[in-house]
Amino acid sequence: MKGGRNIFLVGPMGAGKTTIGRLLAKATGLRFYDSDWEIEARTGAEISLIFEYEGEEGFRRREHEVLTELVKLSGIVLATGGGIILRPDNRQLLREHGFVVYLRCPVDKQLERTARDSHRPLLKTCDPKQRLAELMAIRAPLYEEVADLIVDTGLCSSRQAARKIQKAYANFDC
Q1: Are 80 and 10 in contact (CB under 8 A)?
Q2: Distance between alpha carbon 122 and the CA centroid of its chain, in Å?
Q3: DSSP string of the chain, one letter each residue
Q4: Dihedral sign, Cα of residue 85, residue 88, residue 91, residue 93
Q5: pLDDT for 130-172, tens place per residue?
Q6: Could you tell me the pTM of the whole model?
Q7: I need a labelling partner for 112 at 20 to 30 A (CA). Which of 128, 135, 149, 156 fits?
Q8: 55/47 Cα distance (integer angstroms)
Q9: In angstroms, rounded to a whole number, what is the distance separating the alpha carbons of residues 133 and 139?
Q10: What does the pLDDT look like over 23-74, one tens digit per residue?
């Protein structure tokens, strides 16, 4: 099995990567990591502040550095940031080091789930729904490109999604 049996969750904000990741880690006995939390812990700053001072490019650099370290671990579930797949080298790292699951989620469901979250710098706009749609247009093909499995989290609960992933992961062979 590639990547020491790691599970990497990719998908847009609001797809449930953190929630499902925690459930998966508990069910499989793997350690849970969230790349955004790792960045915040290492910098001592919230993602929104990093975006404010360093811009998206600075944040993406930090995100790549954290991913490069985390993929070297074995036996983890990693919830990634929604834009981690924008860099080709990140997509390569994900493919080479684990079982990649794309948590697909419709824009309306993303909007519903992120509506009260003020820590989403890319949604600080007068039309968050339009912004989510724009991001999906760019990112969906990249999520699909890297995915070993696609689970539609707009159609099932977090527990159902975690069970689907766990079953597919148990049968996955690189």
Answers
A1: yes
A2: 15
A3: -GGGS-EEEE--TTS-HHHHHHHHHHHHTPEEEEHHHHHHHHHSS-HHHHHHHHHHHHHHHHHHHHHHHHTTSSSEEEEPPTTGGGSHHHHHHHHHHSEEEEEE--HHHHHHHHTT----GGG-SS-HHHHHHHHHHHHHHHHHHH-SEEEETTSS-HHHHHHHHHHHHHT---
A4: negative
A5: 888 998 999 999 999 999 999 999 888 999 999 999 999 988 7
A6: 0.90
A7: 149
A8: 10
A9: 10
A10: 999 999 999 999 999 999 999 999 889 988 999 899 999 999 999 999 999 9
Domain count, the chain: 1
> Can you give the CATH number for the domain in which 98 is found?
3.40.50.300
Tokens representing residue 24 in the block: 């998966």
Give me the count of residues in the chain: 174
Question: Which structural domain, as residue segments, surrounds residue 118?
Answer: 2-170
Predicted pLDDT at 3: 45
Distance between CA atoms of residues 55 and 48, nearest Å: 9
Provide the β-strand partners of residue 151.
103
Amino acid at 98: G
